[in-house]
Design brief:
about 80% helix, mainly alpha, 14 helices, globular
Amino acid sequence: MTSTSAAIRTPRRAIVATAFAFLVTMMGTTIPTPLYSIYSAQLSFSPLTVTVLFAVYAFGVVGALSLFGRLSDDLGRRPVLVIAVMLALLSAVLFLLPPSLPLLVVARVVSGLGAGLMSGTGTAAVIDLFPANRKALAGTLAVSANTGGLALGTLVAGILAATAPLPLVVPFAAHLVLCAVALAGLALWAPAPATRGSLRIRPRALRVPARIRGAFARAVLAAGAGFAVTGVLTAVSALFLARDLRIDDHALAGFVVFLAFAGMAAGQLVARRMATGATLPTGCAGLVLAAAALALALATVTLVPLLVASLVLGLGGGLCLNGGIAMTVEQVEPSLRGSVSSSFFAGLYVMLAVPAIGVGVLSGVIGLRPAGLVFSAVVAVLAAVVGIVDLVAARRR
């Protein structure tokens, strides 16, 4: 084996190990999605309880990103990646214990902390492994690992819950094994930090350079609108299927959310073939269509518009994510990449959590379906405004 071939293979293995760890960590965050109806039946959860249970995960993500988003810039990528996967593994262990609301909340928070560390550090780590002329491909891979993990988590959990015994055990046991494999891959192939940083558990504010703040705001609002719809869909779709459509199928509940996240991954491939300036406005237009389809599904209590909404939501959200990372993380020097990436995803997860809780609260007053209709209208208006503003900004440039 020549030194040249070894040098080529090592980065490839590092890319695979890093992307796999990213994917596995994010899988853990959506594994509970198709199981919410089971928890709801066993523990008598209301829609508000389910949305809060979902949202505490997002707050865990935001906490990790806000407090420790720059940790990988100081300590190095690999140590933080390992910590993130270990938190995902701990979350799986907690979910394997006899369920109760406090325990589920703790498990979701731990999962969110791991996802928060992984979202910022994993994105920066993948981009670091590619040469300067391939940063667009690196950004696509990072978002695909992120959204691909979210998609696979809900799909695999739904299938296992519908076909395997012990639906509240087998999905998390499988995830625990995947976490162990991911840790082994990082230990073997992820590059060690070039310099030894010091572990300082000290919150540090995230920073976005002034020159990209306008683009950063548009990127967060556009991709955040997609995350908001996805969050509501993730939190209440299983309840909508079981209570309104009378379809108690865990595999279908997982498939509905899988379509959204798989669409996000596919949106990355579409974005690579588009002009950079067209990505965000096109994605916003897709979000408006997705909100309309979701409103139709809620108003008519039918399945097909719900499936269409999930797929179109994914494609539009994927375009917005790709465009957002291109406008922010890819435009800064490596020393700021972890901070900007963490700031970007912190904004997205705030928009993931808050609307989900809002729909849960509103559903207790006017019902789940009317609350969803109000939410769909708000998202459609927000996406349309952001898309128009970005078009105007592009023309000025």
